[in-house]
Amino acid sequence: MALTHFLSGSLSLLFLHHLLLFSTFRPVSGVGINYGTLGNNLPSPKKVAQLLQFTPLVKVKIYETNPGILEPFSNTAIDLIIVAGENRVVSILLLNFFCLFSRLDRSH
């Protein structure tokens, strides 16, 4: 019993040692927040975008694909990560394709 406990602890320490030894540490390039739309007394997306410009936060993860929420962030230096459900991915890809195609078509 004691031998099993000792071996288990030794293997854990060996695993931790190798994990720390061979892992690559990368510096963090910025700090961000998660932005949700569920709640009471929430400020408008425009106010949130304005507020975040005066903070050191440079990344925002948004759990919404509503253009009214995304648009206020369009002319800011804030990086957006947009989380979309599986049912929205195809429509977002098609919309981006058609927007790109219409721009290319007008250039001729």
SSE blueprint and pairings:
Elements: H1 2-22, E1 31-35, H2 45-52, E2 57-62, H3 67-70, E3 79-82, H4 86-106
Parallel strand pairs: 1-2, 2-3
Give a summary of the structure in a few sentences.
By secondary structure, this protein is an alpha/beta fold.
Describe this entry's structure for a reader.
This protein is of the alpha/beta class and 108 residues long. It has one domain. 50% of the residues lie in helices and 14% in strands. It contains four helices and three strands. The protein has a three-stranded parallel beta sheet, with no helix packed on it. It is extended, with a radius of gyration of 23 Å.
* String of helices and strands: HEHEHEH
In what order do the strands lie side by side in the largest sheet?
Answer: 1-2-3
- Count of DSSP H/I helices: 4
Structural class: alpha/beta
Structural domain count: 1
Strand tally is 3
Helix content: 40-55%
Q: Tell me the β content.
A: 5-15%
**Distance N terminus to C terminus?**
79 Å
Supply Rg.
Answer: 23 Å
The averaged pLDDT comes out at 76
Mind summarizing the main beta sheet?
Answer: 3 strands, parallel
Which stretches of 5+ consecutive residues score pLDDT under 50?
A: none
Shape: extended
